[in-house]
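Posting for a labmate who doesn't have an account.
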Amino acid sequence: MAVYALTGFSLVSLLSFGYLSWDWMKPSLVADVATDPMEKSLPPTFSRPPHIIFILTDDQGYHDVGYHGSDIQTPTLDRLAAEGVKLENYYIQPICTPSRSQLITGRYQIHTGLQHSIIRPRQPNCLPLDQVTLPQKLQEAGYSTHMVGKWHLGFYKKECLPTRRGFDTFLGSLTGNVDYYTYDNCDGPGVCGYDLHEGEDVAWDQSGKYSTVLYAQRVSKILASHSPREPIFIYVAFQAVHTPLQSPKEYIYRYRSMGNVARRKYAAMVTCMDEAVKNITWALKKYGYYDNSVIVFSTDNGGQTFSGGSNWPLRGRKGTYWEGGVRGIGFVHSPLIKRKRRTSWALVHITDWYPTLVSLARGNLSSVPGLDGYNVWPAISEGKESPRREILHNIDPLYNHAKYGSLEDGFGIWNTAVQASIRVGEWKLLTGDPGYSDWIPPQTLTNFPGSWWNLERLTDGLKKSVWLFNITADPYERYDLSDQRPDVVRTLLMRLVHYNRTAIPVRYPAENPRAHPDFNGGAWGPWASEDDVEEWEGIEEPLKSRNKKKKCKICKLRSFFRKLNTRLMSNRI
């Protein structure tokens, strides 16, 4: 049995401090915006397709919202969630690109070839063009579609851009993280460029504006210029609260008593984002959308604990398949919900938003068979049972294989060295290397800035490659039952085998020096020509083309890139 050591505080003492209790009574800024008598709510109706606002935050930890007992002030999110439906059995993916791809396609990443890592700025890769996206289906249903914020689904050619994938307008960044003011992004030493785009053009004139504020202002502008009589979909993918840790000074001042500097900056960013959501909600009411609107709030992955985030009391962090990496903050707020002001424990996954929102929009799903998501609106609005019974968290054949895994440990049907995770009913199975596995209590419990004195560590079990948990009874993953329940382990391994048979080859091409911003006017953006695309897309099918003889043209192309890369490196030195 595992042995644990908790330094500084016990779980009981944390309970006494209230860190595991949820505060339902915090004040809200949203309440102040409905005082105008012209903004009183009308009876909810589905006579027209609803306006849909989907808000996605970046790297916000499970603990980092007021109603999860956080010390961070989020009055808007608290009020919206309290008046709507909190989703407390809600799952996302452990890193950026996978969550966004599954939201946009309604498919597991094994079915889009994006099951490994993220799409990096210099890779000739993007969301597969054969996928019909969520905004495209909403356009078919008569919606005006807009995206504001972080894309991170590839951009090496113009066909990959948001405006080519179903969005009428786009303001935001294409890469994974940028400076909140200058919008610069460096993908390694000397490989830096500007990344803020308006449509398909570089938005040089917006530099200097804090992204969280800029994005909220853009949403308000879209609402002001559109008619509430026509359905609208706005996807707001905040950069916040991803690194770099930057915030306007007035928000940092509120948390000046926090000893941990990273946590202080992070908290300020969360509160700024909360006020941006307040402004978006206010605009929905001001311009006449609110009464027929559905607001969905979701995080994209767990918090990064070494950059101020907290997933307490869950195990693990961003980038892991422990609950701290994949259980998200989620809620739905809408006058159209039949059973409001409650907490739902229905099993929901980020792939479910595709069929759910298309169904709400009265769109046609028959043209997109094989979705991995389910329509969960009856579970959310009426409290009915969720149609979802299991979640494939992922199967990543390229991730570093676990040292102690083997086919023998997987009953001869699964190599447990492969990183994979699945949940079926109340059971969760992990194989391979699931990632950093500690429990990290809230950083503010210590007066030692930047230190982790309250880290609770697992002191044995390091030579394992299989874990089994009853997540319903043990949501914090403290009691591994793989030895006691080999029957359940085998059953879940069979489900992994089933899913693996449906997986397509991984799309993870080598980085290409042609993507360097210096060759593209100093900004990140599409860089591949049509001839390039044909050659590189052939290379992107490693399982099919690995043993084929390379064409001379490809050999010459790669030789050119090698020489070009050598020249670039010498210039940096």
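Reply:
Got it, the structure tokens are right above this. Residues 261-286 form the longest helix (26 residues).
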